[in-house]
Amino acid sequence: MPFRTPAPKSSSLRVPSDVGAVPSARRRVVAIVRDWGLPLADDTVETLELLAGEVISNAVVHTREGCQVTVSWDGARVRLEAEDTEGGLLPQWASADLNEESGRGLQLVDGLAQAWGSRPTTGGKAVWFEVASCSPSPYRPSPAACKSDSSFGGAQRPPTVAEPGCVVPSGFRAHVTAT
Q1: Starting from the edge strand earliest in sequence, which strands make up the sheet with 77-84, in order?
Q2: Rounded to two decimals, what is the model's pTM?
Q3: What is the mean pLDDT of the chain?
């Protein structure tokens, strides 16, 4: 029987402004993905949970408001997007000193997600990241083959990258900031 990729899916949840709501939101994201029955390795789901906690807590802590979280599946990758109502500068990766108590969240996202970025929205901004399943064919086109992908808002990004353990040429993970 040939492998069939599950159909695209999407689900949203509202996270209140209380930082205590972040663990519950993180667990809800995992429950959504598990309910979909996606072909994701356990370590990919754990990465999704960790990174979800980072971007959701950033949205709640730095804006002191809640956020709208959308989890999507396009047949090859899971995308999480946390949208808040605070405009202004888009988040950027920055180094944090060893003695600092915070500032490493986007470093984790940058190091563990296949792609991530931020974009302005009509009411604020959204920070997103993607993790991918390990597909039967782990080879991907070159970064020069990147194109706009309207399925996730038209952001420019590289093709899907297989998770750790799959053979993948280097240079496929990217950070994208829409302006």
Answers
A1: 9-15, 67-73, 77-84, 124-132, 115-121, 174-177
A2: 0.70
A3: 74
